[in-house]
Amino acid sequence: MDLVEHIYETTEPFPRSEQYGLTSQIRRAAISVISNIAEGEGRLTSGEWRQMLSHARGSLFEVEAQLLAARRLQFIDDDTFTRLNVQVKKTGAALFGLIRFVRARENRPIANPRTPETPNPRNPETP
């Protein structure tokens, strides 16, 4: 969330001509990072969760590339780029840790494969 907030603050003074270009693109990529993490956590399987985390990671790489473009186009200065890039790297490290957690979870044996939605064939009244 901090990254999203800082991206929005940083892109506010971008040229008006970039409102539907780089400004929109970098904001959408930053929002996509947190949206994919949230959506993945709501998925039913670890594999689906991991896939959504992979999408989040891809969006984070987009943010990084767009920050490089913003610096090259002189929309942000070197200090701003460095500050945001450090935040991108920290977010990436946390995301990678979450991906490792989900992978490890996928490899664990399931103690009770039944979910609350799975009916118990021995007792139809009990889910």
Keywords:
127 residues; mainly alpha; elongated
Q: What best-fitting shape do the alpha-carbon axes yield?
A: elongated
Q: Which structural class should the secondary elements be placed in?
A: mainly alpha
The overall average pLDDT, rounded, is 88
Low-confidence stretches: none
Largest sheet: none
Tell me the fraction of residues in β-strands, as a range.
Answer: under 5%
Which series of helices and strands comes N to C? Answer: HHHH
Percent helix, as a range, is 55-70%
Count of DSSP E strands?
A: 0
Count of DSSP-assigned helices: 4
| N→C terminal distance | 38 Å
Spatial extent as radius of gyration: 20 Å
Task: List the SSEs and their pairings.
Elements: H1 2-11, H2 22-41, H3 46-72, H4 78-107
Helix pairs in contact: 1-2, 1-4, 2-3, 3-4
